[in-house]
Amino acid sequence: MIIRSLLDTDLYKFTMMQAVLHQHPAAQVAYRFRCRTPGVDLSPFIDEIRAEIDALCTLRFADDELAYLRGLRYIKTDFVDFLRLFQLDARYVRLEAVPGASGGIGLEIEGPWLHTIPFEVPLLAIVNEVWFRHQPPADEAEGLRHLQAKIERLQALPDCTVSDFGTRRRYSHDWHAKILPILRDGLGARFAGTSNVEFARRYDMTPHGTMAHEFLQAFQALGPRLVDSQKAALEAWVHEYRGDLGVALSDVVGLAAFLRDFDLYFCKLFDGVRHDSGDPFEWAERVIAHFEQHRIDPRQRTLVFSDSLDAELVLRLHERFGARSKLAFGIGTNLTNDLGPKPINVVIKMVECNGQPVAKISDSPGKGMGGDPGYMAYLRQVFGLPPEPVSDAD
Hints:
Layout (H helix, E strand, L loop, with lengths): L10 H13 L4 E8 L10 H11 L6 H8 L6 H9 L7 E5 L7 E8 H4 L3 H14 L6 H15 L6 E4 L8 H15 L3 E4 L2 H6 L3 E2 L5 H10 L6 H13 L5 E3 L5 H7 L2 H6 L2 E4 L4 H14 L8 E4 L5 H11 L4 E6 L1 H4 L9 E8 L2 E2 L1 E2 L8 E2 L2 H10 L12
Parallel strand pairs: 4-5, 4-10, 5-6, 7-8, 8-9, 9-10
Antiparallel strand pairs: 1-3, 1-11, 2-3, 11-12, 13-14
């Protein structure tokens, strides 16, 4: 099995799932897979992927896993009690070969949000590992050399931290497990931990994560008005965590719209903001200026960078902003899938909630995603964004 524990996922799946249990347990959603890398055909491996999904859906939480979750200060007892009964259901997943589709397959998840939210990360990890099983073998020695070179570069960081955010696009489960202790031992206090809950538990690391795009996307259908959907999602998060997990995601409908909604109230309530698309230098300048405009010292807030990072970009960002704000870096594919074979860029995004379309509009061309081009155009209009040709409605 590729996935051997339901903890083998990103922390924010659990934090969002808890909020869904408490606030929107009846919400119905749909997700869609997309491969952004041209020329990838996953259809020959569809039976292998399906078998891994079936195996995933046999897993249950073990008592020691539940005890670990219960020990996290922001995880509540009733949520752990719910997880004791939880099991993923393969009936919520549709997988088929689709000639001409991105990646050559159609992969959709549809059902209750509470019961489908954990699928995304393990499904992407499965797709990646199955794909790389059928590529020319990787050179682990080369991968370790690459990793050591990154560690040596990152050792120059004096006062900020790097975390592993690489579960969904890793080369394999076993490679991921192998490199994390090397990162911890090589970087020392500069290595803050991992987004992967299984490995955080195994290696006594700190698990990291707050919210993903889907949480704010869902409120496009759950909130009172579309134009207020980001504010409604942030309010719901504050209500659930009361000051914990205080990093807000900034690019669900673009940074400009986010900053309009992220007023003095939210500037005071949240500890920081996460970057996931667009030019990171421009983003940081605008976020710092926004805090200063609201009389918030940006040195008391954290800028979290998590988009396509490598060691060199981390160092450049630290040089520019290290004295102006607290910084944290989440490095994904460049840590967990750098063994020679070219990584593939695969995503699963929410496209519908309670029968209504929802979408992500990115600050990077090609990273937006929605199932309804008309809705994408309407979303841009409501949030005052310029029109953009739709190229991701497949």
